[in-house]
Amino acid sequence: MTTLPLTFRAPRRTAPPTHLADLDEAGRRDAVVAAGAPRYRADQLARHYFGDLNRDAAAMTDLPAAQRETLVAALLPELLTEVRSVSCDDGDTRKTLWRAHDRTLIESVLMRYPDRVTLCVSSQAGCGMACPFCATGQGGLQRNLSTAEIVEQVRLAARAARDGALGGPARLSNVVFMGMGEPLANYRRVLDAVRLITAPAPRGLGISARSVTVSTVGLVPAIAKLTAERLPVRLAVSLHAPDDELRDTLVPVNQRWKVAEVLDAAAGYAEATGRRVSVEYALIRDVNDQGWRADLLGRILHERLGPLVHVNLIPLNPTPGSRWDASPAPVQDEFVRRVRAAGVTCTVRDTRGDEIAAACGQLAAASRS
């Protein structure tokens, strides 16, 4: 059994350069003045970044030519450099590996569906939650991402979608914090990023808060803090087992906050926001896919969350050399049937990107090896 440390602090590394998205409006204006320009130039830079999805100094023709490069260097430094992008699903799925200023590697995945375009975004480089079936968890935590590094993933994805990276012009409509890392272990930066992602342009990227999902393995105090924020984002709880005995092994943080505590916190969030909670459940062959566990999952969710819960079954995308494997289709179908029989809605996530190492952390791991 894995025992977690008493804190979830990331190892200290060199901080990324300060970016417009890391500063409030007063801080942006002070930075512009320090760069030798009038305060109002900060608003112009924000319009280029959030409204036009642009950080190219040459295109900022409303700024004095002599100041463009200086202002971009001061407030819009390059945070992420594309290392590699791979596509599949007839071009509807595009996974990108990014390198940060300190050579840290992170991933994001852009996906087109018939009714939406979704970005799966990372909040940390690596992850400290140590879930044994997850490629990111196997690699450990390197560091928290800055607010701007999170927002920059979204800006780059929105620009790529707009410019036809998925086969034709499209608008990024949904953001899910289900990439590398535990979002609520980087709480303040994630919340600041959510506010910028959802604020209308030119103060933010203008994505509806109801189209943003924040996931967690069950950090109960952080769920309580998120509840108090009263943001209408969706909460997703990565449960993966309905019983403490198994979840202690699959999701080691369960050694601190048990299933009942996690679900009570989730129920509090649902009640406060009116938003249905998504329960994520990676179905693993002969580990957590038994019929009795489906019955137990349905019963406890129905009792604790009632109609304000939806189970999202995830066919496991095995990592190379892993002993974990996906459940067979008949077992998966029976699991769905049993959860629904308890009165809980349950669907199977549309699998994307099996052939491009789309499971979280796989591309970064392959690039480090």
Automatic annotation (TrEMBL):
Primary localization: cytoplasm
Enzyme Commission number, as recorded: 2.1.1.192
SUPFAM superfamilies named among the record's database cross-references: Radical SAM enzymes
Cofactor stoichiometry and binding remark: Binds 1 [4Fe-4S] cluster. The cluster is coordinated with 3 cysteines and an exchangeable S-adenosyl-L-methionine.
InterPro entries for this protein: Aldolase_TIM, Elp3/MiaA/NifB-like_rSAM, Methyltransferase_A, RNA_MTrfase_RlmN, rRNA_lsu_MTrfase_RlmN/Cfr, rSAM, rSAM_sf
GO molecular function, one term: tRNA (adenine(37)-C2)-methyltransferase activity
Chain sites annotated for binding [4Fe-4S] cluster: C127, C131, C134
Cofactor requirements of the protein: [4Fe-4S] cluster
Organism superkingdom: Bacteria
Database matches in SMART domains: Elp3
UniProt GO cellular component terms: cytoplasm
UniProt cross-references to Pfam families, sorted A to Z: Radical_SAM
Domain Radical SAM core: 113-354
Positions with a binding annotation for S-adenosyl-L-methionine: G181, E182, S215, S238, L239, H240, N317
GO biological process terms, semicolon-separated: rRNA base methylation; tRNA methylation
Enzyme class of the recorded protein, top EC level: transferase
Keyword field contains Zinc: no
Active site: E107 (proton acceptor), C360 (s-methylcysteine intermediate)
Catalysed transformations (reactions): adenosine(2503) in 23S rRNA + 2 reduced [2Fe-2S]-[ferredoxin] + 2 S-adenosyl-L-methionine = 2-methyladenosine(2503) in 23S rRNA + 5'-deoxyadenosine + L-methionine + 2 oxidized [2Fe-2S]-[ferredoxin] + S-adenosyl-L-homocysteine; adenosine(37) in tRNA + 2 reduced [2Fe-2S]-[ferredoxin] + 2 S-adenosyl-L-methionine = 2-methyladenosine(37) in tRNA + 5'-deoxyadenosine + L-methionine + 2 oxidized [2Fe-2S]-[ferredoxin] + S-adenosyl-L-homocysteine
Keywords: 4Fe-4S, Cytoplasm, Disulfide bond, Iron, Iron-sulfur, Metal-binding, Methyltransferase, rRNA processing, S-adenosyl-L-methionine, Transferase, tRNA processing
Compartments (UniProt record): Cytoplasm
UniProt family annotation: Belongs to the radical SAM superfamily. RlmN family.
Function: Specifically methylates position 2 of adenine 2503 in 23S rRNA and position 2 of adenine 37 in tRNAs.
Leftover remarks: Reaction proceeds by a ping-pong mechanism involving intermediate methylation of a conserved cysteine residue.
Name of the protein: Probable dual-specificity RNA methyltransferase RlmN
Gene that specifies this protein: rlmN
